[in-house]
Structure formats: C-alpha cells, structure tokens
Sequence to fold (1221 residues):
Amino acid sequence: MIWKIAKKEFLLNLMTFKFALGTVLCTVLVAVFVPVLADDYQQRLQKYSQQVIDNEAKLRQVKAYRVLTPTIYRRPQVFSVFSQGLEKHLGDSARIDFGMIPEINAAPAELNPYLSVFPTFDVLLIFKIVMSALALLVAYDVVSGEKEQGTLGLTLSNRVARGHILLGKLVAGALTLAVPTTVAFIVGLLLLLSFSSIDLQASDWVRIAVMYIASLAFVLAVYNVGLLFSCLTRSSALALVLGLFFWVLAIVVIPNGSVYLARRIQPVETAEARDKQIRSLEQEFKQDLSAAYDQLPPGRGSEYDAGGPFDAYGPMGGVFNYYTVICAPSRVESWKKRVQIEASLKMKYANKLWEVERDYIRGLLKQTGLAKNIGRISPTCLYENAMSALAGTDLPDFQAWTATAGTYRDSLIAYIRGKTDNLRSVSYFTQSTEAERIEYEKNPESGRELRDRVRRRTKPLNLEDLPRFTYATGVTQGLRRAGTDLMLLVVFNILFYSLSFMAFQKYDVR
Amino acid sequence: MIEIDELTKRYEDGVLALDHVSYSVEPGEIFCLLGANGAGKTTTINILLDFIPPTSGSATINGHDCNKFPLEAKKYVSYVSENVQLYGMFTARQNLAFFAELAGKKGLKKKDYDDVMRTVGLPERALRMRLKHFSKGMRQKLGIAIALLKDPPAILMDEPTSGLDPTSAQEFLAQLRLLRERGKAILMTTHDIFRAKLIADRVGIMKQGRLVAIRKKQDFKHADLEEIYMHEMQAAETV
Amino acid sequence: MVYQIVRKEILENLMSLRFTLSLLLTVSLFAASTFIFVDNHRQQLDDYWNKTNENLSAFRERSAQLYKLAFYEQHVYRKPKLLALCAGGFEQSLPGHFTFDAFAVDLPQLAGQSNFTLPRFADVDWAFIVSLIFSFIAFVFAYDSICGERERGTLRLILAGATPRATILLGKYIGLILTLGIPLLLGLLVSLIIVVTARVGVVGPAIWTRILSIVALSFLYLSIFVFLGLFVSTRTARSSISMATLLLVWVVLIILIPSLGRLISDRLQRSPTAEEFERAKSEAIRRVDNAVSAGKFGKNAGRRTSNREECNPPARARYANAGADAVNQVIERHHSRMVAQAQTGRYFTCISPAVVYQRMSEAIAGTGISRCVNIYQQIKQYQVQLKEYIRDRDREDPDSLHLLFDEEHSVAEWNAISKRPVSFDTVPKFQERDLALGKSLQLAIWDIGLLALFNLVFFAASFVSFLRYDVR
Fold:
C-alpha cells in the first residue's frame, strides 16, 4: 500500500512545473559553474605542483646544512569545487627551519583583503539554496493540497492506515528530490572528470558517495519540515507561507546570525595584542642572541650580522640564510660555537612564539566553535559542516596538515643533526676542506681566488635520503568529523517526520 | 448493512451536530438523507468514514463499528464525495487504477476499465483524458466509476447531484438504480428534493441534528415530498 | 477608486498570517541586531580611542626632535561609525589599520578582531535585513496578488465593476508598498530607539539626513520586488506556479549572483600574490641600486659612515628618496590593483539589485571599500602636509642641512634634518574627514539610477502583462 501511494505521488510530482523548473535550474547552474570552479582548482593545482618542483630544484642547490630550509606546500583539495570551506582563507605554505614552528608561518594566504566583501561560491551554495527551495515547494501541499482537492478523503475512505499514507508520501518525496540531486551530482562529476589534471582515487569516490548521502539527508530534512507544515494547516497557502518563513530563517538568517552572534558573544584577543607579544619575543631573541655572541671570541666586525664576501646565501632565501664558502681555521671554532648557540636559542624561541600563537588561535577556535554550535539548529549549517569535513576543506584538516608539518620539522632537524654529528661537524656550515682553510690563512690576499676555486669545486649536498614531506587527507578522519553533523541531520529528519506523523493522525480531512 | 444507532455528536465549541439519530440502510435500498445545510447530514458521513469520532452511539457497516474498527468497516464501503477533483494531471484510467489498488483490487484488465466506463456512461476514450479536461458531470461519473470498481456492499454519497445539469443528473439516477439492482445499500445525503423523490426507497429528514421523520416510498408517492419536508421543517420550529 | 482598492489590499494583508510572521521576523531581527551592534560599537570606540591616544602620545614624545617626527611610524585606525548600523560594509574584514611615516605608506592591514577561521558572512545590518529579508517578504506578499484573486473569483467581480485595469494595478502596488512599509518603519523605529537610548554616539542632523535617505532608497529598492512580484503574478494562472517562479528568481538574483562576484574578480583581474609583491619591491630597489653604482645621484651616494666628510649627503638624499619613491610606487600600484579587483567583481554583479543597494547604502553611510580607499588617499595628502610642516620648521634651524630623506641613521648622524624640538600643538595631526552628504550621494548616483531603472522595467512589464491578463 505504501508503495502504491508513493508511486502515485512520485508520478504526480514529476509532472509539476516546480519540479521541472527546480531540476532544470539546478542542473544548468551545476553545468555552468563546475567548469569554472574546476578550472580555478586546476590553476591552483598547477601552482602547487610548480611550487613543489621549484622547492625540489632549490634543494638540489643546497651546499651546506645550515641553509637547508625547505618550504612545504598544501595541496588544494579536489572537492573544494563542491565545498570550498575555508580553503582560500587559510595558508598554503610553511617554511621549515629551526626557528619557526610551521603553525605560525602558515598564515592566511590571501593578500587582497578587499575581496572579503564577496561570499564564497561553490556547488554547495547551489544545493543549499536551490535544492532546499525545491524540497519546500514539493512538500508544502503534500497533505493540505490533497485535502483541498478532496482526494485525501477519498483515499482515507479505503482500507489504508494514515501512517501508511504519510510514509508513502515520505518515500515519494525522497524519490522526487533524489532525481535533481542525482542528476546534479552526475553532471558535476562528469564535468569535473573532463579536466585532464583531475584524477580521483578510490578514497575520493568514497567521499563522493558520502557527500551524496549527506545531500539527500539535507534535502529530505527540508522536505520533512514542509511536510510538517502541510500536516498542521488546512490550507496549502498557509503551509506555503510557514514553509517560506522557515526557509528564509534556516538558509539566510541562522547561518549569518550564528556567526554574527558568536563574534559578539565571544570576542577574540586583538591581533595587535598578539603582534605586540610576538614583537617583544623577537626583541628578546635578538638580545639573547647578541648577548650570547658577545661571550664568544671577537669576530670580524659585521661578520655576525650579515654575510661577508666569503659567505654565500642559500637558495632558499632569507636574510640570515647563509653559509661560509671558506674561512680561516681559527674561525672554525667560533663558527661552531656560534651555530650551537643559534640553534638552541632559535628552537627555544620557536617554542615560545608557538605558545603565544597557540593561545591566540585557541581563542579564535572558541569563537568559531560557538558559531558552529549556534548554527546547528539549522539543517543548512549541519549540511555545510558535513560537506566541508568530507571535502577536506575545513579547519581540522588544516590543523592536521600543520601538525604533520611540525612532525616533519622534527624529522628534518633530526636528519640535520644526524648528518652533522649534532651540529658539531663543520659540514653544517661549510664545505671547505681543512687544507683549503689552512691555505687561506697563509695567503689572505688570494682569498677571493681561493673562494671562487672552492665554490667551483663544491657540489651541492646529496639530499636523496632527506625525508620528503607527505600529507594525505584521511578519508576516515573526514568521515569522523562529518559524523556528528550527519547524525544530527538524521535526528532532524526523524524528529520532523515524527511530528508530522503525530499531526497527521489528528488531521481533519473533511 | 449500514446501522446508525443513537448516534450523537457534539463539537468542542458546543454545537450539537447529531442528536441521538437512529436508522438503518438495508442492501438493495436507497436511503436519502434530506435536510438544510448544517443539519448533520455530512457529519453522519464523516462519522461513518471515521473522519471524526462520535460523542456517543454507534455507526456500523456490515456489523463492523466505524470508529472502533475503521479499517474493517472501510472494506465494505465506497465513498462518492460532493466535489470530486481527483488528480488533475492523471488520466481517468490512472485515477481509476490508483483507487482500485487502494481498494485492494488486483489484476484489473483493460476490459474491466472499459466495462466500468460504459456502465457510468463515459466514452472509452475518456480513459486516456486527463482529469483536468473533464467537465463536472464527467467527473461525477468517474467518481461513481471509482466506487463501482471497488464493488462494495455499501455506498456513501455526499450531495452527488449538486451542480449537475438535468441530463447528467438523470444519467446519475440511472446509475443509482443499477447499483440498487446489484443489491448495494446506498446512503445519499442531498437537498435536491426533486431527485430524492424520484429515486429514494426511504427518506430521512434531518433538522438541527435530529432525525425528525422517516418516510417510505409508498408514503410520499401520493403526497408531495416537498410538502412533507416543509411541514416537518416548520413543525420542528414551533416545538 | 484607487483609494478603495488600496484600503482593501492593506486590510486584507494586515489580517493574514504572513503579515504577522513578517512583522515578528523583521522587528526581532532589527531589535537583535541593533542591541548587538550598540554593545559592540561601544567597545570598538573604546578600543579605537585607546589605540589612537597611544599613537598620539608617542607622536607627542617625538616632537622633542623634529627629525623624529618624520620617522615616527604612525598608526591610524578606522573610527567605528554609527552609520555602520545601516550598512556595515563588511568593515570587520576590511583593512582598518594604516601605518605610515612622512615618507612611505604601507599597505593597509586588518585591524582588531578578525578571525580567519570563521566563514565569512555578512553582518546583520539594516542593509542585510532590507536587501535579503524584505525582498523575500515582498515576494511572499506579491506572488498571489493577481493570480490569487483570479483563483478566488474576486478579480472577475472587481473588473465587472467597471474599474480600469491600470487602477487595479496601481492600487495593488500602493497597497503592497504600504503593507511592506509597516514592518520596515516599525523595525527601523525600534532600531533607532535602541540606538538613541543607548547613547553610544551623538546622532546629529548630518546622520539623520543620511538615515532618511537610506530609508527612502530602501523603499525604492523594495518597489522593484513588488513590481517583479506583480509581473510574475500576471504571467501565471495558478498562484503555486507564481510562488515557485518567484522563489527561484529570488534565489538567483539575491543569493547566487552576488556570490559570483568573487569568481568574476578572480578571473578578470588577477591580484598579485605576496611573492610577486615582494619581487616587485626588490626589483624596484635593485634598479635604484644600479642607478647608484652608475653614479646617477652623484659621487659616493652609496657611502654612509658617521663621518660626514667622507660622504655626499645631498647625493645620499637623492638616492634614498629615489628608493623610497620606487617602493611607494610599487605599493601604490599594488593597492590600486587590489581595489580595482574588488570593484570589478561588484560591477559585473550589478544585475542583482541587492548588490546595487549594498553599494549604494555603503556610499551614503560612508563605510565599506570606498571608505578605506578614501582614508588611504587622505593619509597621502596628510603626508604631504606633514612634510611641508617639517620643511618649514627645518628652515628655521641653521645647524641642519635641510635635506629631507628616508634614512633615519644618516639623517641623525649628519643633522640632515633639524634636531630641535617643536611645539606639538602646531604639528598637523591626521583627522579622517567624512565626505559631505552631497558628495556621498554623487558617488551613489549611478546606483540610485540603476534602481530606478529596474523599477521602470518591471513596472512596464507588469503593466503590459496585466492589461492582457486572462481573467476567466
């Protein structure tokens, strides 16, 4: 019986204008915008690949371990096409060296702050808005409309329980809404795959499947709310009005309002306060460093401040990123002491800076968490959270990346220490041999010639056994993060369906 | 077949829609329930279909109480409502098929549909027409066709002739006679005294929730039903 | 005749559920957002005054020596405006912190509390409520104005009474506008009462005129949607089709098209990355360095020691100034490109009345991107003023070399600029000047024209369509 009612309802829905309009609009929008978004993704991917290649090339030019400070990059997520999340707002690169914990310098990548007047645009927006509007339009006259037509009474004059009728309508609604969802997904995927550089793994397909399910759950949730309104009122026009107000609340007011409220209720520490702390720490570092240097045997004037003619800069750039091509043997000891001091101080201050940053970010996250929780009363926010978690464009994924970057820094430091006998070997800061250094000390006037000879002789370090940075967005983590919101969506569905059920039992069909 | 026993209905706002009404409709009988608007005719049908519960008394169809065991009772009854809209985007055949399925009729073939259309006087090609192109009379006939397909022992009709032109109304009465011949118990509410006179076996006159008179066909063959009706209306007034 | 229709429309609307719901929704939104705004505004003002006074007192200290005034890095912040209640202009995410000294202006930075982990959403200000919520409500009221009456059969009755169709349309339009006006004006009133009683700022006549203009233009904006709703209502026979169409039109116009802005600006005008910016700066500096080696500025321009005899201060000055100018040009170019990119996005999304309205209310309220750009330009002008002042004071000092250039050490060592103290009261201080109302309106004139054009188009459309509407 349920299936018969569902089938009738489904066929009727397919013949309505609103269904046709909604499906066509959804499909057209997806067809127009997926290529644009995919192209944007492709460009970002190319930029990423180029940056990785450039980094590799630079690694092949490193001639001393002191200047080994690679930069790691964050690969753009392919599903940012579907759900952009925070991807364009968060950083995408981090420099790895002794003095900086990656979380700090992986700051937001956007240089143009004026672009913040525009909201994000992705396929999720189309689903959120158009599909939910369609769900509402299908649901609002499902019961009240039949009553007005007189067919509800006619149906109930038969041997069929009210519960079955409502279940049939639910199934029909789900099927009806599954049509545009599926079509949009298929069209979007096909267009996405038509791009040559886009290649989906098995894990990606799992993600898509769950995204599809999440979309269905969302659309059904809106349908259930519309169903409830239809079961509460005797006229479809009333049900429509109620539905529309709910829609504008859930889609527009609550998402914006939750962010607005959270910003006001839970203010964050100002960036200036944090910057002040950072600046004072940097001052402290400079003072500590120069105090420590003062205790060393005196050097050659500005030798400790900037590279002299016998030093050379590493390929990675940076003001103090240099090593020495050749120096006198007497200088070697002071160099050794100096790099030890430098390394330990840098690491100490890296940790201090990280603490300041961590506290700051913790404050930010509190605010974001509050906004998220306030927003959870709307199925739209639940859906968005789930989708961006599945796409890997949400904040926790970025945090996982920076955590991995931190681990990589540790392994890089361990590697360097390993290769240079815990920074005690000269290979840390020079490739000149003992003999060459003695020669330089004997004939200081031919210093430049010697320097050029050493420079021509030395080859870049063999870094084949250097661990490379790898990071992959885990599917299971993404699923786990999306889990709460998906579950809440299901609860939302069940809640509103049960309310509709109870309302329909008492519904006056006359 | 249809038993109404001391049926009473008082609404939440105090209105007494039915006041200890009792009568029965036997198989092969057409019982017309006459009365002004708001007299309680539609309320009776609503109770029989379990759309509202009675305050006291009982309504049974084929021995099954309509409110205690509604699903059982509905097995034996078919309903033709006053304003039959049906599903406008479906064809007549699709509408028939759907309601037949709901009624538990399986395996209906083209012949069955053609037969029923012929019985109610609709052309067979109307099976392929969408309901929204049907006139009121055609829709009424289709409503009866739906009832016929279910083929139950009892039929409830609510103001079936309202708004029909004389020819369609005549055709409708012919249908009713057919149904009576097949042994159906028909309860029909109406305020069309003219047609009631022509078709009813028994007539019940309701006023303000009470059944003030029941007359058999013989009783009003001679006397004018209208006179009886008016008399009852005014008599109750002076009480 | 019109009056009767208008009266009937208003009464009918007032008694409907949708009116109650709209009133509830809008008034609570206005009230809630204003409460939150007032609270926050107070705090932001405190913050602003603290930071500005800090800056000023440090500036004052520097007036002990004239040259230090030139090298003092001033921090100027954007003052929180009361009119941000009307149109916040996304100021939370826009730059609000400007650093500069007499020689160079940095790129503006984000100020205060800015949480980059939050998704960026609009502020719930008046502009949001009017452009999003009220346009939606306008559709909810207008969708069945014509086809609903037809379905009920009352349209035939009205037309049977020898009322010309134009009158009916006009009456419906006026009725709808007045109906919408009730929650709008009530909400605005509630909002204003909250602001005035909270005493967060002086609401002077200048502000009142701006508020009134925004209110008037809000009606112009909503009128577009009333006409559009009437138009669609006259194109369909059933009100459910009308609502479906209008809902989807609203979605596309108000939600989807504005979001395209980012995509369009990214495609049409790429903004340079951080690396490009740095590279451009290094390039500029390198060119100047090459010029130095070529001796373009004079002998020994590259030399700098504490011994003035070994160096050539005028040459050094030319070199330093050339360097500063080159970098300033890069910064200036960069900044204009960023602004242009944002504005291009907005130009192209002007098909959406919501974007037009947003831009227009920002112009009148004096907030948003144009304000940031304005402040930036005013800072440049102030710089010139400050330099003039320093030059004038410097002329009075016989010990100074009267060379004004961007290198603190050299200036200090060679007495290039006077080291005498000056009276702080005579020093020009930066004060942000608001645009006059006339100028603001001038900025907004194109947008107002666009809104009027939209009105005209949809008016004509609904007029023509209704004249041919099938009433049966």
Q: What stands out?
A: The first strand of chain A starts at residue 71 and ends at 73. The interface with chain B takes residues 1, 4-5, 8, 11-12, 15-16, 149-151, 153-161, 508-510 of chain A (CB under 8 Å). The radius of gyration of chain A is 32 Å. Confidence is low (pLDDT under 50) at residues 300-307 of chain A.
